[in-house]
Amino acid sequence: MQMSIVGCVMGAFQIISLDGSADEEHLPELSTSQMLKMYRDMVLARRLDSWLMRLQRMGRVAIHAPSEGQEAAMVGSAHTLESEDWVFPSYREIPVYIARGVPISEILNRQFCNEEDPLHGHDMAVYGSRRHKIVPAPVPVGMQIPTAVGFAMAAKYRGEKAVAITYFGDGATSKGDFHEALNFAGVFKAPVVFFCQNNQYAISCPFSRQTATKTIAEKAVAYGFEGVWVDGNDVLACYSATKRAIEKARRGEGPTLIEAFTYRLGPHTTADDPSRYREHAEVEKWRERDPIARFKRFLIRRGLWSEEDDAKLHEEIEEDIKLEIEKAERKRPLKPDVIFADVYESEPWHLAEERDEFSRFI
Amino acid sequence: MERELSFAEALNEALREEMRRDERVIIFGEDVAVAGGVYKVTKGLLEEFGPNRVIDTPISEAAIVGAAVGAALMGLRPVAEIMYMDFLTIATDQLVTHAAKLRFMSGGQLKVPLVVRTQYSLGRVHGSQHSQFYPAWFLQSPGLKVVLPATPRDAKGLLKSAIRDDDPVLFVECGLLYHRYKENVPEEEYLIPLGKADVKRRGNDVTVVAVSRVVREALEAAQRLDERGISVEVIDLMTAQPMDSETIINSVKKTNRLVIAEDSVKTGGLSAEIAARVAEEALEYLDSPIVRLNSPDMPVPFSAKLEQEYMVNADKIVDAVSKLVG
């Protein structure tokens, strides 16, 4: 497989061209239904993202970190995971959750902090679920990276097949956590995949302000393992690169750093105005490389999809999301006593006392 | 059966017993395996349990604690060693903002049963960057437990409980005590519960609450004061979070006088929290103001002579108690 392994070939690994034609030699072995599922997940993630942006603007949810433009990187990589694998995400990974099979009802319960919020309204983490093996994303950038390594080391020690994948952005690669974690993983040959979505901005700071290297992938060399540079807007390239890395980790051959080169079309979060730090023309240029449009062209060219199918899918998803929003918004809010829940295995006396004191006011 | 063990030997035995009992217990940190720990606390564990369970890591404190969080999520019970408490600041993000928050953040779906062992070297002429003692910082981190053993016997029983605990535990040892003296430690299995203070000496005139290294100083002071007819009750805090105020308050209700002696610098130290709790709950029982004996609000000096003067000791406790009972 001709991956852009640093030191061999420079140029991001790509399978689907902008016009939807494909590099037949490198097409991954995927059934039509698998590819259509990936496409559906990408569209669902995009439509849900758009709804969450609007819901925040309407004051109905608190905050949202949009994933528009990054669906290929997340859906492509997450589709390679087995049920025993664990995800250590950052805060922009709704497409990963969808690809992992999390029902959007759960994501919306979380967004509305209703009584069925799996996180009990405790943290702004987008989601988290033991059942789906997704750890709630930490807010401090890159904190989840060493955790994924420790998880992978433990899985190896226990002789389990589980692999850890951790998602982070280009900004996180400037953190000590990133360097310490990659160094650790290299030393211990931990079964972990480091999936960096280089969306070229850390809030307002461009990629050039994070590092003097041309790519992030090349940093893997310094830790003694392989780095892969992949077109992050090409879902099949992201799938292939991650599949290879996951299988390698599962075989006990250690970690891989994948850099998916992509672009954040939206703001950092609903609290950000990107017009202050980048030109509209640049965003438009990247819209032409939209990962969903590209995959759609690929599917249509191969006779696997049509404009009619597409219109129907969008309509169906839109109806579904609207229904789930309505349901989530109608559920009761969390009860105030969950403020005091889930801190320790059993409640220490001082918390019981503080809870009693608080309960007089609520 | 009892036999004499040093603090380091007692800790070693606790680790050994828990590793024999539960294969989920693994150890990692700097110099813990081949060297057996720079202070020999993990001596011989590599030989008994092998390199998959006793792991020398890169010098990488954030990754050590971060990896412990991940290993705990995987279902292990990692014991991570941070060689000096001074180096814990680098890993505090992982301990405070990650380990201590994951149960809460996940709505109770996840737990992080890990122990971070560390030690402070005040009194060993190690200078200002080897001697810091700041357990009080970690009282501001709900979700974390903070344990501070003062004797070999307690160190063993508390460490075993910490390893079995389902919450993350910061276990702060006193390096000065590791090889200083031995005491009787039961051979039979025993556990000492977290969250309980221990009355180390009964008395009626003054309560002295001491922590870690200073417990021994307080007991020596109590002995000397006893010869002068002053009866001192010495309470060893043992766990700072959750803090057993009840034992302290009950003692104060009896003695009506309180001295708090410990190694934090005075401002915002453990003594501040203890004093505040007593003031809230038992002010009317106090016959005189609370006295706090701490390190001065200064970095620890390197010079051996200056360092000795800097530290809380039995003389200072005798002096403070004598003034109180005047």
Walkthrough of the structure:
The complex is a heterodimer of chains A (362) and B (326). Chain A is of the alpha/beta class and 362 residues long. Helix content of chain A is 40%, strand content 9%. In chain A, the strands form two sheets. In chain A, strands 1-2-3-7-6 form a five-stranded parallel beta sheet, with helices on both faces. A two-stranded antiparallel sheet of chain A has the order 4-5. In chain A, 51% of the residues are buried. Chain B has 326 residues and is an alpha/beta fold. Chain B folds into two domains: 2-186, Rossmann fold (3-Layer(aba) Sandwich), CATH 3.40.50; 198-325, 3-Layer(aba) Sandwich (Rossmann fold). In chain B, 37% of the residues lie in helices and 21% in strands. In chain B, the strands form three sheets. A seven-stranded mixed beta sheet of chain B has the order 3-2-4-5-7-6-12, sandwiched between helices. In chain B, strands 9-11-10-13-14 form a five-stranded mixed beta sheet, sandwiched between helices. In chain B, helix 3 packs parallel to helix 4, helix 7 packs across helix 11 (314-325) and helix 8 packs across helix 9 (270-282). The longest helix of chain B is centred in the N-terminal third of the chain and has 15 residues, at 7-21. Chain B is globular. Chains A and B meet through helix 5, helix 6 and helix 11 of A and helix 3, helix 4 and helix 5 of B.
Descriptive keywords:
heterodimer, A: 362 residues, alpha/beta, Rossmann fold, five-stranded parallel beta sheet, 7 strands, disordered N terminus, B: 326 residues, 2 domains, seven-stranded mixed beta sheet, 11 helices, 37% helix, 21% strand, globular
Brief write-up:
With 362 residues, chain A is α/β, with parallel strands linked by helices. Chain A has helices spanning 32-57, 71-78, 94-99, 104-112, 144-157, 176-188, 235-250, 280-287, 291-301, 307-330, 349-359; strands at 86-88, 164-169, 192-198, 201-202, 205-206, 226-231, 256-261.
